[in-house]
Amino acid sequence: MKKFLKAVSLLLIIVTVGAGCSDNSGDTWSEDYGLSDISFPLDEKVSLKIMTESSSLAPENPNEKLIFQRLEEETNVHIEWRNFTGATFGEKRNLAMTSGDMPDAIMNAGYSDYDLLKLAKDGAVIPLNDLVEDYMPNLNAVLEEAPEYRDMITAPDGNIYAFPWIEELGQGKESIHSVDNFPWINVKWLNELGLEMPTTTEELKEVLIAFRDSDPAGNGQTIPMSFIINDGGQDPGFLFGSFGLGDNWDHTVVTNDGEVKLTSNDEGYKEAIKFMNELQGEDLIDIEAFEQEWPTYVAKGQEGRYGIYFTWDKANISGMNDDYELMPPLEGPDGHKNVARTNGTGFDRSKMVITNANQNLELTVKWIDQFYKPTQSVQNNWGTYGDEDMQNIFEFDKEENMLKHLDLQGTAPVELRERTSVGGPLAILDSYYGEVTTMPEDASWRLDLMKEVMVPHIKADNIFPKVFFSLEELDRLSKIEADLLPYIERKKAEWIANGNVEEEWDEYLAELDRLGLQEWLDIKQEGYDRSTN
Fold first, then answer.
1. Which of 6, 209, 323, 448 has a CA between 20 and 30 Å from the CA of residue 314?
2. Cα separations in angstroms, 18 against 88, 104, 171, 309, 481
3. What gap in Å lies between CA 238 and CA 229, rounded to an integer?
4. Which of 79, 41, 40 is nearest to 62 (CA)?
5. What is the pLDDT of residues 309-323, one digit of tens each?
6. How far apart are the C-alpha atoms of 311 and 238, rounded to whole Å?
7. Under 8 Å between Cβ of 99 and 21
8. CA torsion angle for 312, 314, 320, 326 (degrees, to 10)?
9. What is the arithmetic mean of pLDDT over 96-104?
10. What are the transmembrane regions (predicted)?
11. Over the stretch 386-422, which tens digit does the pLDDT of each residue have?
12. Strand 46-53 versus strand 77-84 pairing type
């Protein structure tokens, strides 16, 4: 009976919402202004109604941001925002699209490829090919300079359904995204204890034992090694490269022969797990490493308790000081040394979509095209200049016509970015640095570390690209991954914590096959071949 009542209640909610939006649909998208051959600024101000997501640190009304105020002055287009934060945005976005209570467009949309293609199939979002070609000179200039992005935003059916976000920071192996889980080691403790930087996995073990026994943090507070298992940049998978293919956040690598492989069924993966379990058996691993969340991880790092830990940027954990340095990749027991590349890129396929309720397509896409002007993209991505009420991330050098990053005087770049930038569709190409803007100091520093420490030991010439799979392929991948990936990650944590990887390995491989590994690899391989040929 309870289930029946719940079902009836849900049906009533859906009917009520549907009925309500049919009576008030004019409130959610703009009237047809009948404009054509548009150039900015418009003679008379008009408005568009756009849904978006922004940080909880940002103003509740996006129009309070200087970037949007300037854009309104330049275009004479006022935006009526429906702005949400966190999980609320996803709920409101989905409700708007399923109920028909649609805005003109959704910015910072955050759709997965599956959701985007499903909405396109249902006609809720519109194809953009002709609009991009006819009305978006700034985006077309980006696609002419970097034509690979045209392929990346084009669905298997030949249509473009969303506007992308592009942020280039280095190319190939030297891309800032090549490795996310940098290992940061406490060189202050190494010096205090007269220890050398480890160069092998065995030397690392000896260093961690020295940290444990000497307790340099004092009062038993020393944690020789910490991480957050299966958490991207905080995962210890960097160490797995000393034993074989290594590991990364999606457990997928591509060999130099173009073969897509799963990292987690490699023999070297098993040996890496055994090594990690040895460290666990010696009480060298944080007892909370298998369950802690980010705030706890940061808090202990800020107290200086870690001998070694893993993350993208040490500034977020132990601070931008000299106590920690990047540990180079280590040789394994057989002399093997490899740094597994991640499959990350500065690219998001669906930063903005236009709904089928929009009656002002030329106006909307010409407004969106302003985001792809180089100086506008730079500000949308990082923040702006000349704000008298907020700290600025840039100064504008009129003589050089360039946006230059300011010294933030201790302010966290991420925090300032969330307060003042607007995100959305944009493009920042490597060619912009030194011409349109300076490179952020923290990014330049990380790129130098990547080049000096990591790149010489990255064996893979390829990564798995941002393949745009078909709806049918995505359906199969998602169904397989729903069981396959959690199983892989659960066994990884269990084996590091409790051992038994050798005894359970054959059973584990059989279970991977049962869960659809071969079909998963076949689909991935077909997608890779299609996107690289």
1. 209
2. 19, 18, 48, 51, 34
3. 12
4. 79
5. 999 999 989 998 999
6. 10
7. yes
8. -100
9. 94
10. none
11. 999 989 999 999 999 999 999 988 887 888 899 999 9
12. parallel
Neighbours of 60 (CB within 10 A): 11
Backbone angles phi, psi at 62, to 5 degrees: -55, -25
SS (H, E, C) 170-187: CCHHHCCCCCCCEEEEEH
Backbone angles phi, psi at 89, to 5 degrees: -60, -50
Query: From the centroid of its chain, how far is CA 65?
Result: 24
DSSP assignments along 14-40, one per residue: HHHHHHHHHHSGGGTS-------S--S
Residue with tokens 């990591």: 454
Q: Is 427 helix (H, G, I), strand (E, B) or coil?
A: strand
pLDDT of res. 14: 34
What is the spatial distance between Cα 265 and Cα 13, in angstroms, rounded to a whole number?
47
Asked if 72 and 50 touch (Cβ cutoff 8 Å), the reply is no
Please name the residues in contact with 426: beta carbons below 8 A apart, sequence gap of 6 or more.
Answer: 165, 166, 167, 351, 371, 372, 376, 377, 380, 381
Strands (E), 343-432: 347-354, 394-397, 402-405, 426-428
- The residues facing 523 across adjacent strands are none
Within 10 Å of residue 237's Cβ, how many Cβ atoms? 26
- Three-point CA angle 395, 396, 401, nearest 5°: 150
Q: Report which DSSP code applies to 316.
A: G
Using alpha carbons, select from 313, 308, 298 the residue that is nearest to residue 445: 313
Q: Across the chain, what does the average pLDDT equal?
A: 93
Q: Which residue matches tokens 């002399």?
A: 335
- CA 254 vs CA 84, 268, 464: distances in Å: 38, 16, 6
Question: Rounded to 10 degrees, what is the CA torsion of 163, 164, 165, 170?
Answer: -150
**β-strand partners of 200:** 331
Neighbouring CB atoms inside 10 A of 76's CB total 13
Distance CA 516, CA 68 (A): 48
CA 227 to chain centroid:
19
Query: Which residue type is seen at 388?
Result: E
Tokens 């590991």, located at residue = 247
Helix (H, G, I), strand (E, B) or coil at 105: strand
Among residues 440, 461, 363, 479, which one has the least CA distance to residue 169?
Answer: 440
Residues 341 and 237 sit within 8 Å (Cβ to Cβ):
no
User: What is the C-alpha R_g of the chain?
Assistant: 25
pLDDT over 50 (residue 432): yes
Strand ranges, E, within 293-382? 306-311, 324-326, 347-354
- Checking if the pLDDT of 3 tops 80, the result is no
Domains of the chain, with CATH numbers?
A: 46-171+346-441 (3.40.190.10), 182-340+469-531 (3.40.190.10)
Instruction: Please tell me what DSSP assigns to residue 224.
Output: E
By the 8 A CB rule, do 276 and 496 touch? yes
Which residues, other chains included, contact 300 with Cβ-Cβ below 8 Å and sequence gap of 6+? 223, 226, 286, 306
CB 83 within 8 A of CB 62: yes
Helices 517-532 and 471-498 pack at an angle, to 10 degrees, of 120
